[in-house]
Amino acid sequence: MWRNCVRLARRGLGRGAVLRPDPTVSRCGVSKDYALPNSSWSQGMMDLYSRFLEMCKDGTWKRIPSYSNSVDHIPGKAFWGVHSKYQPQLWQTINMDTEGVGFEYAMFLNPSEKRMVCLFQPGPYLEGPSGFAHGGSTATIIDSTIGSCATFVAGRVMTANLSINYRNPIPLGSVVLVDSKVDQVEGRKVFLSCHVRSIDGQTLHAEATALFIRLDSTKSLQQQMSCQ
Ligand SMILES: CCCCCCCCCCCCCCCC(=O)SCCNC(=O)CCNC(=O)[C@H](O)C(C)(C)COP(=O)(O)OP(=O)(O)OC[C@H]1O[C@@H](n2cnc3c(N)ncnc32)[C@H](O)[C@@H]1OP(=O)(O)O
């Protein structure tokens, strides 16, 4: 399957094909959960996913679907994306319409530990150095995982600072675990840290720290930004 994805990706790129959002989702607004197993997932990704699903059974962990923002999972919090006309497209941009070529991922939240993990399998469209994930895609998945974690703790947040040390390149098609947690909350500031490791835990691919700032919950993002 992985070889097929690479071939498909290369063919598509060769013809200058443009990936489009899934029309069934963007046109009628029906949400599709992209953070679910598909045929592009490797055995390692499937095994890890099953392990976390198992841990969801006693309520320790909670699976975060792709189609709804993590804010949606916090009781009493408003849906962050409701003010944005672009919200329905966000997930397709991230996951693309062809399985396996972009960001394949699944997120799980541990509320009591204020921890969010992301199982991440980068596809060929994310290539930076030959055969490895582009650093920007690693930054994206880190920011999204840490951001979801901060969102769970503080509600509507934005990244103010993200500092990443890249330790070892991530091979395309491999599976890594992005493990983030909240370290401290000071007023509107949420400090977090994150490690990206291979699934056997032997390779540290990246480590990061981040500062997120909580936004005014009574304003839409657009109102918030136009006030500055
Ligand atoms: C791929 C698979 C996806 C999976 C799917 C999951 C989806 C899950 C989605 C949810 C997760 C979203 C994750 C993405 C999140 C972004 O990508 S956000 C986009 C990137 N970030 C931005 O564009 C932010 C741009 N900056 C800003 O808008 C504003 O500077 C901010 C950050 C909102 C802060 O502005 P403000 O509210 O006016 O706050 P301000 O008064 O300036 O600062 C408050 C305090 O923070 C401090 N501060 C502010 N900035 C900084 C800084 N950079 N460094 C240090 N201190 C700072 C200030 O000094 C101040 O401190 P005190 O004086 O109170 O001690």
CATH topology annotation: Thiol Ester Dehydrase, Chain A
**Number of DSSP strands?**
7
- CATH class assignment: Alpha Beta
Secondary-structure class: alpha+beta
CATH architecture: Roll
Q: What percentage of the residues does DSSP assign to strands (E)?
A: 25-35%
Rg from C-alpha positions? Answer: 17 Å
Q: Specify the overall morphology.
A: globular
**In terms of per-residue confidence, which ranges show pLDDT below 50 for 5 or more consecutive residues?**
4-28, 78-93
Major sheet summary line: 7 strands, antiparallel
The CATH superfamily label reads Hotdog Thioesterase
What do the pLDDT scores average to?
Answer: 80
Q: How many domains is the backbone divided into?
A: 1
Q: Determine the oligomeric state from the structure.
A: single chain
**Main β-sheet, spatial strand arrangement:** 1-2-3-5-6-7-4
Please give the share of residues in helix.
25-40%
Small-molecule binders here are: Palmitoyl-CoA
Span between N and C termini? 48 Å
Order of helices and strands: HHHEHEEHEEEEH
Number of helices: 6
Protein name: Acyl-coenzyme A thioesterase THEM4
GO molecular function: hydrolase activity
EC number: 3.1.2.2
Domain Thioesterase: 131-203
